[in-house]
Amino acid sequence: MNLKSTIIKQPTVPGENGIIYPSANVMLDLNQLKKVYPTPKGDYVVLEDLNLKIMKEEFVTIIGHSGCGKTTMLSMIAGLNEISGGSISVLGNRIKGPGPDRGVIFQSPSLMPWMTALQNVLLGVNQVFPDATKAQRNDIAKYYLQKVGLEDAFHKKAADLSQGMQQRVGIARAFAIKPKVLLLDEPFGMLDSLTRGELQDILIEIWNKEKITAVMITHDVDEAIFLADRVVMMTSGPKAKIGDVLNIEFERPRTRKSVLEHDDYYKYRKHLIDFLEH
Ligand SMILES: Nc1ncnc2c1ncn2[C@@H]1O[C@H](COP(=O)(O)OP(=O)(O)OP(=O)(O)O)[C@@H](O)[C@H]1O
């Protein structure tokens, strides 16, 4: 038997920065993405020719100047904002709107204030797992609430929770629907630095365990480096696109101390700050 002829080459696709990816590993594919907002002064092209491939189980952070179109891009991936041109695919399937394969965590978790933490998480779980028993759905919601450290607050009303605790519920709610992709729009932007650090650790711990793909917008360069496998830099708008991509090679699990003490840390930091300043 001619061994050579039996080897089937894994199909590959060209990605940004000329990297070639095995197509089977691509979770999220943004292809020639375009977004136009109609305004009284005429069309405003926020994004154009935006190409980005994100791999299965990858954690990608997105940075860029305020107003460049980060939230626009993320909300399009979530299916909450219409696509003006190009396409977005999850595992090769073009998205047509929101779906349980994509969970979203916003800066403000927008919980139902009159409902308990558990009821808020159950809202999504009940929708996504209608065939599970009530007990099974409760178990899922409680599991994730406990993972974010809210085991003593299942029955507390959302309105009575601190901002940090509300965001913990937001994280539990997003993971509990077991999405393939987690989309995070500055989820810790409104929190004090101690709570922020705690929630970063919780996020990474669950992400690592669930092996899902995460895409997170942040304005914080240190957060971008600490969390990511790759930091994606967007150019300033109008017609924003991917300007640069930085691979973060630190081993996981990471601690803040090990990252800060690593020789490459300041090299990465300088790269990102140079991009933002030019
Ligand atoms: N519905 C809309 N109609 C018209 N223009 C919009 C609309 N939504 C956003 N924009 C404009 O599109 C641009 C991109 O906004 P977007 O919120 O996506 O940016 P961003 O990078 O997330 O900003 P920030 O970092 O400040 O959150 C901005 O100039 C904004 O004013």
From TrEMBL:
SMART domains the UniProt entry points to: AAA
Entry-linked Pfam families: ABC_tran
GO molecular function: ATP binding; ATP hydrolysis activity; nitrate transmembrane transporter activity
GO cellular component terms, semicolon-separated: plasma membrane
Domain ABC transporter intervals: 28-261
Membrane topology classification: Peripheral membrane protein
KW Transport (keyword) present: yes
Keyword Cell membrane: yes
Top-rank taxon: Bacteria
UniProt keyword terms in alphabetical order: ATP-binding, Cell membrane, Membrane, Nucleotide-binding, Transport
Signal peptide start and end residues: none
InterPro entries, alphabetized: AAA+_ATPase (IPR003593), ABC_transporter-like_ATP-bd (IPR003439), ABC_transporter-like_CS (IPR017871), ABC_transporter_ATP-bind (IPR050166), NO3_transporter_ATP-bd-like (IPR005890), P-loop_NTPase (IPR027417)
Subcellular location: Cell membrane
Main location: membrane
Transmembrane segments: none
Protein name: Nitrate/nitrite transport system ATP-binding protein
The species this protein was found in: Formosa algae
